[in-house]
Amino acid sequence: MTTKLALAWLSRIGGGPFVVVSNDIDDDGVDAVLASPVVAAVIGRLPRSAQLDPDRCADLSAHALPRRVAREVFFLGDPAQHTISLLARLLAAGARAAVWPLPEGGIARRPLWELTCERGLASSRLALRSALVRSAPLGSALVSRGEQERAALIADALARLPVPARDASAATSIVIATSSLRMGGSERQAVNLACGLQAQGRETSLVVHGRAADGDPSLLADLRSAGVPVADLLAPPEPRERVDNEAAFIRAALAAEPWFATLVTAWTVHLRRARPGTLQAFLDEPNVAAGVGAVLAGVPRVVLSGRSLAPTHFDVYRPWQRPGYRWLLRQPGVVLANNSNAGARSYAEWLGISPSDVVVIPNGSRPLPAVDPARSAALRARVARGAHDRLVGTIARLGDGKDPDVFVAVAAEVVRRVPGVRFVWFGGGPRPARRAARHVVFAGPTTKREEALGALDVFLLTSRAEGLPNVLIEAAQTGLPIVTTDAGGAREAVEPGVNALVCPVGAVEELTGAVVRALTDDAFIASARARGPTIAAERFSVDAMVASYQALYDSHSRHQA
């Protein structure tokens, strides 16, 4: 499909020759794209790139350019999604203009140096913001002042957007919006809800910002099995559809935040075509961008679902999110939900609303597949490296929010006090822990969570910030003793003292003592084994989550009527 779209767009635009850049041009279609008279070279994720002509082909993952680079670069998708490194290398190689398709069907063309500077500034702003926030109080004050000024610009732009009446003739269908289908807790919840609603006879589709095909195969398989249609938001419409002048107005009004403007425009176009009765969004970027698009498209009901604490706790925070949320919550038919009471309080404080204005609907966790003891034992033998070792582990993205440095520090202390213990971290991410990790195995991502959990004696979560962690619910399903920080809604996912020991965030000594107890206290181990599965089943079923969302849609619909 990507090859077909690339050829369709190239046939519409003038200029060239082009270097075509795509996150995924299928391998068999490379020759077809290169056969176009306006294509000089292709850069993409090309499985056979080593066998292709290096003069005209390069693999994105290899961080290389083709030997032949044209003056114009055609991006199949927003160039802001690519790294500053790629843009700078293209510029240094002689490329001068960037061309890309707009969601409403038009074409954008800008000097490549301008985009490279913007991307560099955006990357620098994120890095600078993170550094400044950590250098409080002066750094935090500077960040706050700058973000307040940008937020004021966006608030003013939103206030000027034309808000139509809600579409009383819209269908009863539901569109679920999320940013990707990568394996993650929020993505799993979006898929669980979509499949559950479809099973209840509610016509449901799922739309992602990027390419759904790049998502986790198990999530895609669940959606196919349930008959839930999946669409890519930023794929250009085929055949090209006429969009009225409002799309151009949106982009002009929100020019201070180009990516936000692109998303809002794309969502407005998509939802005006789909005309659902309800938009259900997950995560902050889709919440705000799809939410604004839904209001502008006249969607009667809009449910925004925060999945953690307010976004100011994370590096992905954007200045347009707070004014976007505040504007949305002033519109009729819009409601904010969260998966934990801690998250509801965090959003309420950030947005200046009452916690009672946020509807709390806990996550729904499906029972894990039956554990194959032999496979778990084999995994344990590979990781523990000793028949008598006990294994403490986690399953989490290897990033700052999960605090792998604290995990490693706890491991060092526990191993010093209790012989024969090893630690394992299942999950990929941007960096390893900074400290030496002699007693920790970083095992990489796993698609068999049940086998990983089955190999452990204790589950340890050292996060700084959390929503309602699905992984704690899954650990409880297996009867593991749990040690967790009191981050966000982590306490709400367990029963403290019964199947889990909850410690302050970053408290290495308390976490160490809790892990030692979880390894040695037979009464606590037996309690976790007996009560954990019951706690998970009673509090966090998918059926209960789906029923709560359905009740929210229906009650909100009656209230608005």
Index terms:
561 residues, alpha/beta, 7-stranded parallel beta sheet, globular
Notes on the structure:
The chain has 561 residues and is of the alpha/beta class. Helices cover 43% and strands 16% of the residues. It has helices at residues 2-12, 30-34, 84-92, 112-134, 138-159, 185-199, 217-226, 246-253, 258-274, 284-296, 321-329, 341-351, 373-384, 404-417, 449-454, 470-477, 508-520, 522-539, 542-560, and strands spanning 18-21, 39-44, 57-59, 72-75, 97-101, 107-111, 174-178, 204-208, 230-232, 278-282, 301-306, 334-338, 358-360, 390-395, 421-426, 440-444, 458-461, 482-485, 500-503. The chain has a 7-stranded parallel β-sheet with strand order 9-8-7-10-11-12-13, sandwiched between helices. Strand 14, helix 14 and strand 15 (421-426) form a beta-alpha-beta unit. Helix 9 packs across helix 10 (284-296). The protein starts with a helix and ends with a helix. Mean pLDDT is 83; it is low at 238-243.
Short description:
The chain has helices at 2-12, 30-34, 84-92, 112-134, 138-159, 185-199, 217-226, 246-253, 258-274, 284-296, 321-329, 341-351, 373-384, 404-417, 449-454, 470-477, 508-520, 522-539, 542-560; strands at residues 18-21, 39-44, 57-59, 72-75, 97-101, 107-111, 174-178, 204-208, 230-232, 278-282, 301-306, 334-338, 358-360, 390-395, 421-426, 440-444, 458-461, 482-485, 500-503. It is α/β, with parallel strands linked by helices and 561 residues long. Helix 4 (112-134) crosses helix 5, helix 6 (185-199) runs parallel beside helix 7 and helix 14 crosses helix 17.
